[in-house]
Amino acid sequence: MPAFRHDHSPCLPRRGLSAAVLVLAAFGALGAMPAPVHAADQWPSKPITLIVPFPPGGTTDVTGRILARALTTQLGQSVIVENRAGASGNIGSAFVARAKPDGYTLLMSGVGTHAANVALYDPMPYDPVKDFTHISSITSSPNVIAVNPGFPAKTLADLVGLIRKAPDHYNYASPGTGSSGNLAFELLKQKADLKVQHIPYKGAAQAVTDVMGGQVPILVMVADTLEPQVRAGKLRVLASTGAQRSLLFPDLPTVAESGYAGFDAVSWTGLSAPAGLPVEIRDRLFEATKAALSDPEVIKPLKASGNAVVLRTPQDFTSFIQSEVGKWTTVAKAAHLKLD
């Protein structure tokens, strides 16, 4: 008689049994595999490029190089500055906006590239908020309003009085249309209801020369650029444009202190990356930046050039940029400022 099975398990052919054993073994092997390693966990594993969207030697470039050295120490990988200038910073900024968001391409952002240019250029090659992951602000520096020493105004109130007595009679110089000095004085014109013509120069050097020579009476520019001429008595400063007094001219009153409450117009820099940066890398960059900006070897050269260190969280820095876009777009449109 044939033998009977006393269990109820299905009887598998030898080939089927072998396949089942292989499948179970595969599942066992998978269970024993380590968790996958994410790129963010290994970051940074190679040098990082920090794009400065302006030529070498300017305020943004100097600040970027100080920051790059400090981040190299904090992150254990070289942070290399690369200048990509053009179109008031738009070329370098657009390059970063299109870069892979892997933490290896960063940007020195600023008031021009991430606020004023929105109103000055049409179309803009990027959205200053949506196309970036903003990590932290870095520095803030006021402009100063200066005049030729022979000009009769000794205070901002004097200057405002002279302009009001002779509308459209006076001119003021700045390093160029859309520069922080240009925007700062246009904001003052709108708040004080002044009629004075703007003469835009292609950079600071010739503007300073012409005001010292008496061709133009008024000059508005970042404080560190004018410090040597002011110390030498070749220019007289009347007011600084920030909410706080200038580090270089601590005895100089602000525009707000001179009768225009709430006035604040500064040149600022920040650290940004392409949109979509993993939050883990963003947070590591913020912590590294925070540590860098607390280092006396970083603070000292920044303050020496008139830059206050300003740390903001990624969320606060993003909100700040949004407010700056709105503020300077309104000012630029009212002043009919445009660049091709």
Low-confidence stretches: 1-32
Biggest beta sheet summary: 10 strands, mixed
Helix percent reads: 40-55%
Beta-strand percentage?
15-25%
Report the radius of gyration as a whole number of Å: 29 Å
Class of the largest domain in CATH? Answer: Alpha Beta
Which structural category fits the helices and strands?
alpha/beta
Please tell me about this protein's structure:
This protein is of the alpha/beta class. The protein has two domains: about 160 residues, D-Maltodextrin-Binding Protein, domain 2 (3-Layer(aba) Sandwich); about 100 residues, D-Maltodextrin-Binding Protein, domain 2. It is built from twelve helices and ten strands. Strands 1, 2, 3, 4, 5, 6, 7, 8, 9 and 10 form a ten-stranded mixed sheet that branches. The longest helix is centred in the C-terminal third of the chain and has 21 residues. The protein starts with 13 loop residues before the first helix and ends in a 6-residue tail after the last helix.
Provide keyphrases for this structure:
340 residues; alpha/beta; D-Maltodextrin-Binding Protein, domain 2; 2 domains; ten-stranded mixed sheet; 12 helices; 10 strands
